[in-house]
Design brief:
With 220 residues, this protein is an alpha+beta fold. The protein has a single domain, classed as BirA Bifunctional Protein, domain 2. The protein is built from 7 helices and 6 strands, in the order ααββββααβαβαα. It has a 6-stranded antiparallel beta sheet with strand order 1-2-3-4-6-5. A hairpin with a 7-residue loop joins strand 2 and strand 3. The relative contact order is 0.17.
């Protein structure tokens, strides 16, 4: 498949879904979703695959079992690349709001958090991460992730890089509002260049945090 952009029909589809998040709307518009949302996203990921790896495309249905919001469908379509054995991931999303890309770690297990904080406190690795997060912020990326309010156990309040030490996850993201170029192959270039820009952050996380060593939780 050749990626030719995200058609405007896909964004209009999500505008409609935001207004009418029902099975009736979804059933009536599923062909539009397949042709103008899922299809272009798969084409994009296929072209990026040789450089970045195989992506997982998320289901469009929401898990409402433990949510107060019972609307059945997601109002965006996302995909993630998370190679086995690594801490970091890459993300892309299309919605009525436009295009979003991100990278880093969205969830860290306790053993990963411990390794992350040791690396942040390290006199070599910590400054490397701080320099990279400062660069990303200056380049227009937003830095997010779960963080503590208080000083983490085992660290002094005046420890260097306290903002990074408080974090329990770390990811960077940026978004583009709908524009004409989103409907062209330029969208491919924007995602590719953005993911490349995240390579240093992800490499730091992979080298210093790595995959969890905890046993996976068994599903009942």
């Amino acid at each position: 498949m050749t990626f030719e952009g995200f058609p405007d029909e896909g964004l209009v589809f999500y505008e409609g879904l935001e207004a009418d998040n029902t099975k009736t709307y979804w059933t009536r518009s599923k062909g539009t979703y397949e042709a103008h949302v899922r299809g272009p996203l798969l084409a994009l990921l296929e072209e990026l695959g040789p450089e970045f790896g195989t992506a997982k495309v998320f289901r469009p249905y929401r898990d409402v079992r433990f949510s107060n919001d019972k609307t059945p469908y997601k109002t965006h379509q996302g995909a993630v690349i998370h190679p086995e054995g690594r801490a970091s991931a890459l993300y892309v999303q299309i919605s009525a709001d436009g295009l979003r890309v991100a990278g880093g770690c969205w969830r860290l297990e306790s053993d990963q958090v411990s390794r992350y904080r040791r690396a942040v406190a390290d006199g070599v690795q910590g400054p490397r991460l701080e320099k990279e997060t400062d660069r990303l912020s200056a380049a227009g990326w937003s830095l997010d992730g779960e963080r503590l309010v208080r000083v983490p156990s085992g660290f002094d309040a005046d420890a260097p890089r306290m903002d990074l030490l408080k974090r329990k996850s770390l990811h960077a993201g940026r978004s583009w509002e709908p524009a004409d170029w989103l409907h062209t192959r330029r969208a491919l270039d924007e995602v590719r260049n953005a993911w490349r820009d995240l390579s240093a952050l992800n490499a730091w996380l992979d080298d210093n945090v790595g995959a969890t060593t905890k046993e996976p939780t068994r599903r009942r």
